Structure formats: structure tokens, C-alpha cells
């Protein structure tokens, strides 16, 4: 990754971890490198739970409309500003893989070996579902409504499955490459990460693991370097679907560097309670590290989004499905952030995060973080546009092969 002088070195010989550390120290002392770490490998896990489509339709028809997530965050009122949203916004989705010919999705690109299957060969619709919340066609008389108007939407997807080694494992350099590609090459100002990048189940206390800290430090260096190179971005990260774990049990969420931290929003999931008001979803990770809550659905009402299925002949088709999870909650924040950038492109990532936090509604029952209010956030961004100076976004020197 030339922008930040980050390189991967592969040795033909086999070394122990201690031997690698000794070699790295020698190279550092000789002034050849400034820092080093081993290329860690971890398992990916998705942050959503499938729901029964027929059951949800029956429940929703008698209680809530299918647009309840948009109503909960006042998205319709945010769209009242649509005529002032004229600046295209590039949104990057780092996820499993994408059905890029879905009838209700339009990707600008899905580079870096887009792959829809897990290592086992099982079809994985997760990335397609997340993309639908953010960017399904709006008012196109097809399927569902995503958040970002088509006229300003530039959607890019990087497939983690396409970067994996084997058995759903991905190495650190692949993660860094995918994120850097979206931020530096494609100039995506909003990055959605609805994956858990650390197999928290392999350790009783991942947050105090030496390897976990090294992984977090490596991502901190990546984002710091990209910021120093003049890139502007925010990262919306799902909190995770394990209530026994803190939202901080993920290397992206655990970043503590103040400059980088101000551009990362960790999102927990909420759904409607018996009285219709929002409450923390039973599956959602939470804790003090969460910044915002947003609709993720629950057993009372899931969220309808884009999907892909494969028939007996292996032919894939555009479908829609009800799902729930913090993956979707993060996507609602990402979509709203894109609206803010479109209506006021002079803001930088830190300012966009501040607006989302300052305009959030009350904290739902059981949750740690206030509820996203898309209308209030977009209105504040629109009101402030006239007084904003243009943000400086430098072009990357990384040329795509």
C-alpha cells in the first residue's frame, strides 16, 4: 500500500514468531523499516440473523409497516432535503460479497475478486443485504427503498470472501488492502464494516489479548496513514451480535487513537418494543464503546432488504428477505452519513460524526447509545453549508492496475 508505505514481505523459509520478531528488530535498528508486525490471520463472522420471511410479513401486516426502520429514524423527513442533495458521495462497503446484478442495486464497482460464496461453497447473501439498506433504488418502483438517492449514489463493494485464504479466514494485509482501496483509490468518504474482524470466541478476554492489541494497532496505523495522506472518511462499524461481549471486542471498535477514534461510529441494534418504542435488540453487543443505536430489528419486526438465492441449476436471482442484526443498524448510519456529505460536501469526517452524535434522539430502553435521527442530522448539515469552507481531499497516487 504505497500511500502509507505499508508492505508485505513473504519469506521462503519458515520462522517461529520469536525469530520473526528478532529479524524485524534487526531491520528496524538498521533503518530499513520503521515498524513491523506479523500478518495475523483471523476468522470472519457476519453480524446479522436471518428471520422467517412469511412470519414477519404476517406480523408486520397487523402491527407495523414494512418501513418501520425508516420511520424510527425519521428518514422521510430527511428526504425532504433531497433537492439540495446534489453532490455525489462514494460509499464503500467492506463485506462478504455482493450480487452486483440485483435488480434493485447499482454498484459503481465491486473490485478485488468479488465472491458470493464462503470457503465451503455456501452462498452468502450478507453483503447484498447490507448494500440494500444503504443503496437499494429509491422510488424506482422495484423492491425496497434504500437510503441514498440514486442521483448522488456511488456504491463500491469489496468482498472479504474474495480476499480470504481458506475456511473463512482472512489475513491482516488483505483487510488493510481492502479498506485502503476503498478509501484511497475510490475516495469513499463513508465506509461500512458490518463484519466482525476478530474471532472473539477463540479467547476468553480478546480485549486484553496481545495479538488483539497488535491487530488494533495495525489498523490504527493504516487509518492514521490514510488521514495523513489527505484522505477524508468515516467508518460505521456494527457492534456485533453477541450480548455476552462488549462492542469493543473488535479491532476496529477498539481503536483508541483520538484522531482516528473521532471518525469511527460503533452502532448497536434496536427494534420495536411492545408499545412500538425502540429498545435494545436481545442479540446486540453493547457497552460504553457504542456511539449510536439504529434499527437492526428483533423478533417482533425484522427488516426487509435485498437478497440473493440460487436454484438447483445454480442460477442466482434477485430476492428480498427479512433479516435482523447490527449489520443493518450500521448500514442505516452509513446511509445517513452519505446524505450529510451530499448536502454539505465541505464537511470532513470528524464533523460528520459530530453532527450524527449531536442530533441523535434519546437513548432507547436497554441501550447504551442514543438513537440515530436522520432528519435532524441532515437538517443541521444543510443549515451549516453556507458557512463551511471546502474540505481538502487530496487525490491518491495509488494507480489501479
From TrEMBL:
<dbReference type="InterPro" id="IPR015500">
    <property type="entry name" value="Peptidase_S8_subtilisin-rel"/>
</dbReference>
<feature type="domain" description="Peptidase S8/S53">
    <location>
        <begin position="89"/>
        <end position="363"/>
    </location>
</feature>
<feature type="active site" description="Charge relay system">
    <location>
        <position position="327"/>
    </location>
</feature>
<feature type="compositionally biased region" description="Polar residues">
    <location>
        <begin position="385"/>
        <end position="401"/>
    </location>
</feature>
<dbReference type="InterPro" id="IPR050131">
    <property type="entry name" value="Peptidase_S8_subtilisin-like"/>
</dbReference>
<dbReference type="GO" id="GO:0006508">
    <property type="term" value="P:proteolysis"/>
</dbReference>
<keyword id="KW-0720">Serine protease</keyword>
<dbReference type="InterPro" id="IPR022398">
    <property type="entry name" value="Peptidase_S8_His-AS"/>
</dbReference>
<feature type="region of interest" description="Disordered">
    <location>
        <begin position="382"/>
        <end position="401"/>
    </location>
</feature>
<feature type="active site" description="Charge relay system">
    <location>
        <position position="126"/>
    </location>
</feature>
<keyword id="KW-0378">Hydrolase</keyword>
<dbReference type="InterPro" id="IPR000209">
    <property type="entry name" value="Peptidase_S8/S53_dom"/>
</dbReference>
<keyword id="KW-0645">Protease</keyword>
<comment type="similarity">
    <text>Belongs to the peptidase S8 family.</text>
</comment>
<feature type="active site" description="Charge relay system">
    <location>
        <position position="95"/>
    </location>
</feature>
<dbReference type="InterPro" id="IPR036852">
    <property type="entry name" value="Peptidase_S8/S53_dom_sf"/>
</dbReference>
<dbReference type="Pfam" id="PF00082">
    <property type="entry name" value="Peptidase_S8"/>
</dbReference>
<protein>
    <submittedName>
        <fullName>S8 family peptidase</fullName>
    </submittedName>
</protein>
<dbReference type="GO" id="GO:0004252">
    <property type="term" value="F:serine-type endopeptidase activity"/>
</dbReference>
Amino acid at each position: 500500500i504505497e500511500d502509507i508505505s505499508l508492505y508485505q514481505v513473504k519469506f521462503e523459509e519458515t520462522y517461529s514468531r520469536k525469530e520473526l520478531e528478532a529479524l524485524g528488530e534487526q531491520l528496524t535498528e538498521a533503518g530499513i523499516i520503521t515498524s513491523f508486525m506479523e500478518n495475523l490471520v483471523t476468522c470472519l463472522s457476519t453480524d446479522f440473523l436471518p428471520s422467517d420471511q412469511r412470519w414477519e410479513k404476517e406480523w408486520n401486516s397487523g402491527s407495523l409497516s414494512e418501513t418501520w426502520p425508516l420511520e424510527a429514524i425519521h428518514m422521510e423527513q430527511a428526504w425532504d432535503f433531497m433537492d439540495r442533495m446534489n453532490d455525489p458521495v462514494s460509499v464503500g462497503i467492506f463485506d462478504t460479497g455482493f450480487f452486483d446484478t440485483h435488480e434493485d442495486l447499482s454498484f459503481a464497482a465491486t473490485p478485488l475478486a468479488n465472491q458470493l460464496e464462503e470457503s465451503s461453497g455456501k452462498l452468502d447473501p450478507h453483503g447484498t443485504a447490507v448494500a440494500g439498506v444503504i443503496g437499494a433504488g429509491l422510488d424506482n418502483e422495484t423492491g425496497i427503498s434504500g437510503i441514498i438517492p440514486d442521483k448522488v449514489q456511488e456504491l463500491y463493494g469489496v468482498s472479504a470472501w474474495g480476499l480470504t485464504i481458506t475456511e473463512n479466514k482472512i489475513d491482516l494485509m488483505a483487510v488493510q488492502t481492502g479498506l485502503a482501496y476503498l478509501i484511497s483509490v475510490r475516495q469513499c468518504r463513508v465506509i461500512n464494516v458490518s463484519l466482525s474482524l476478530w474471532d472473539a470466541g477463540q479467547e476468553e478476554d480478546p480485549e486484553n489479548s496481545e495479538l488483539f492489541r497488535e491487530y488494533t494497532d495495525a489498523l490504527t496505523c493504516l487509518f492514521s496513514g490514510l488521514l495523513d495522506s489527505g484522505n477524508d472518511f468515516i467508518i460505521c462499524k456494527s457492534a456485533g451480535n453477541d450480548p455476552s461481549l462488549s462492542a469493543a471486542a473488535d479491532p476496529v471498535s477498539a481503536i483508541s487513537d483520538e484522531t482516528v477514534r473521532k471518525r469511527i461510529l460503533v452502532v448497536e441494534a434496536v427494534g420495536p418494543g411492545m408499545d412500538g418504542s425502540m429498545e435494545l435488540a436481545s442479540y446486540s453487543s453493547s457497552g460504553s464503546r457504542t456511539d449510536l443505536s439504529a434499527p437492526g430489528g428483533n423478533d417482533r419486526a425484522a427488516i426487509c432488504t435485498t437478497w440473493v438465492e440460487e436454484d438447483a441449476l445454480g442460477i442466482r436471482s434477485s430476492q428480498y428477505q427479512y433479516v435482523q442484526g447490527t449489520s443493518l443498524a450500521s448500514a442505516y448510519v452509513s446511509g445517513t452519513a452519505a446524505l450529510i456529505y451530499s448536502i454539505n460536501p465541505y464537511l470532513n469526517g470528524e464533523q460528520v460524526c459530530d453532527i450524527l452524535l449531536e442530533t441523535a434522539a434519546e437513548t432507547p430502553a436497554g441501550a447504551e447509545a442514543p438513537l440515530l435521527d436522520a432528519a435532524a442530522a441532515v437538517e443541521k448539515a444543510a443549515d451549516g453549508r453556507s458557512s463551511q469552507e471546502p474540505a481538502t481531499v487530496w487525490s491518491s497516487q495509488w494507480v489501479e492496475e
